[in-house]
Amino acid sequence: MNNVIAIDGPAASGKSTVAKRVAIEIDGLYVDSGALYRAITWKALQEGVDTSDFVANAKVAQSIDPEFYVENNVLRFRIEGQELNAELRTAEINDNVSYIAATPAARDVVMVWLHKMPALGTLVMEGRDIGTAVFPDAANKFYLDASPEERARRRHAEQANSKEQQSVTEVNSSLQKRDKIDSSRKKDPLKIADDAVKVDSTGKSIEDVVKLICDSCKK
Ligand code: DC
Asked: Could you tell me the distance, in angstroms and rounded to a whole number, from the CA of residue 51 to the centre of ligand 1?
């Protein structure tokens, strides 16, 4: 499968920034698969669901019908006519999303949505299981990582203008907790695909990482 570039890796490893830029470089479509798990979490919290209840999580996921659309080099979605942006990036969503992502039936729902996307163009899709489970036949797979300290620093800097600014230590422990749940869940955990190119972005500029990925892609 040559029309998917899979970029997996832990939280705050720089996947979004890099994947967006790669999509522009190759005139493809950036897909943030994590945003779909966040949208299900948002809906679950709105409905007062306890996200440790996998049966309830599954029902919420199955009740959602996102409307996908293309804007510039990004594949976006609306839920019930609503675009979700800052709503998906709150500390409450961060603290609950791994439970939604660990719910097998919610993963099945997201998989169906993601599998429809290659019809829309060449995808640069970021996530945790894109190269291992969603598109295991992707010709171009990358696993992006960075040191825990650098990841916490980056996420902390992103929160600079938010009302919910946490300390670097708090950000670090939230990231570690999420990585642990994401890597130890039963279904499609975060792991490196055997045929992925591993990229450590610690101390590298965004430009360097984007270039490395574009240069490594098989045409
Ligand atoms: O990349 P992110 O932080 O927005 O991801 C949110 C959550 O969704 C995180 O717990 C990992 C999970 N996720 C996943 O399990 N599989 C994906 N393909 C993308 C995200």
From this structure: 15
| Cα distance between residue 217 and residue 139, in whole Å | 8
Beta bridge partners of 124: 5, 30
- Which residue shows structure tokens 């019908």? 65
User: Which residue out of 20, 93, 97, 103 has the highest number of ligand 1 atoms within 8 Å of its CB and is therefore the one to mutate?
Assistant: 97
Q: Which domains does the chain have, with CATH numbers?
A: 4-206 (3.40.50.300)
Q: What is the mean pLDDT of residues 55-61?
A: 98
Please tell me the predicted confidence (pLDDT) of residue 1. 67
Report pLDDT for 204.
94
Q: Does 162 have pLDDT greater than 80?
A: no
Contacts of residue 7, Cβ cutoff 8 Å, sequence gap at least 6: 15, 18, 19, 22, 124, 125, 126, 127, 130, 142, 144, 213
CA of 34 from ligand 1 middle (Å) equals 4
Compute the average pLDDT of residues 38-61.
98
Query: Cα(106) to centroid of ligand 1, in Å?
Result: 12
The alpha carbon torsion through 147, 150, 155, 156 (nearest 10 deg) reads: 140
Is ligand 1 within 6 A of the CB of residue 33?
A: yes
Segment 17-44 mean pLDDT: 97
The answer to whether 92 touches 28, Cβ cutoff 8 Å, is no
Quote the pTM value.
Answer: 0.94
List CB contacts of 105: < 8 A, sequence separation 6 or more.
54, 57, 58, 61, 62
Indicate the pLDDT class of residue 155, thresholds 50, 70 and 90: confident
